[in-house]
Amino acid sequence: MDKKLAFQILGIAETKEEDKIRQTYLSLLKETNPEDDPEGFKRLREAYEAALRFASERGDKEQEQEPQDEVEIWMKRVRETYRDIFLRNDAEVWKELFEEPVCIAFDTFLDARSRLLTFLSGHSFLPRAVWQQMDRVFHVLDDFDALREEFHVNFLRHIEYHVNTDDFLDYSLFEAKEDYGPEDDEEIDHYIIEFFEIRNKLEEGVTEGVEQTLADITRHGLYHPMKKWRDCGCISGWGRAKREANWRRACCHAIRGTAMCRFGPAKFSAMRGMRREVSPCGRQCLRKSRHIIWQGISHSVI
After folding, report:
1. How confident is the model over 152-210, as pLDDT tens digits?
2. DSSP H or E run through 8
3. What is residue 206's DSSP assignment?
4. Which residue(s) pair with 175 in the sheet?
5. Are 275 and 299 in contact (CB under 8 A)?
6. Which residues of the chain have pLDDT under 70?
7. Contact 115, 150 (CB under 8 A)
8. Where are the alpha helices (DSSP H) in 14-143?
9. What are the backbone dihedrals phi and psi of residue 291, each rounded to the nearest 5 degrees, phi first?
């Protein structure tokens, strides 16, 4: 369990005070019966242990080593760009990064490409425009066979897919709390992974545990309007008729332009066949509109 989730479960701000953590844990423990709520009891215990681990960590950890060469300096900027969800979505920022001399010079090109791909093999949530820019500069698809000597073929196919396929997530719709500040390169990725785990469960008709995960995901300090649609009756116990009524209402808002999102036929058909519930007139409007709710619903919709 990560630190942010631990303190969110305990209901206190991050602290190194072990006594405060213990007192909070004991207080919550009185309200949690392991026989009535074994999962809740287990989560509370895990949160307590994770918070204590954080409290016991030394404050004088080794500082990150300063970059030693021009490619390392460039990679530091790559990581900083990836870590910020708003910079990550800015194609112009990436364009400037990929126009740096290290990406072009004969003596640094291969090293820069290798380090970049190594980083992206574990940090692979980027808009299509960025993948395309990267491929134009580093010729990943052209050198596909040669790169198989260094990188797993599935990772290279992942790049190929995203170079040639529209985004499944509109990164421009992300919002963040005022005090938002990612602690590492993975935090935004954790949000996205957890979000799509929720989506996959709901599409499979599995609702168990989804409500708790939706609550947990708020610890990242991020928000994506697509989550609003997932919240809308999907896990509240509403019947199919009410869920579809909300979906149709959202479609009406989309047609009127209050939810402006990218649309693809495959994504629309994945909405479990609910398009047949829309009137013929509504379907015609949806066909004409290039904007629909799949990748996000504005706050005003629900």
Report:
1. 999 999 999 999 999 888 888 888 887 777 777 778 888 888 888 888 888 888 888 78
2. helix 3-10
3. -
4. 223
5. no
6. 58-67, 226-302
7. no
8. 18-29, 38-56, 70-83, 85-88, 91-98, 109-120, 128-138
9. -125, 130
Q: Is-contact 25 240, C-beta < 8 A?
A: no
Residue of 214, 287, 227, 294 lying closest to 259 (CA atoms): 294
SS3 content of the chain, % helix, strand, coil (to 5): 60, 0, 35
- Residue 103 phi, psi dihedral angles, 5° rounding: -85, -10
Closest CA to 75 of 6, 25, 123: 123
H or E element at residue 222? strand 222-223
Token pair of 196 as six digits:
């799509």
Structure tokens at 297: 């619903």
Reference 170, options 151, 192, 149, 190; nearest CA is 192
Q: ∠ CA 104-127-292 to the nearest 5 degrees?
A: 150
Quick one: which of 252, 246, 295 has its CA closest to 270? 295
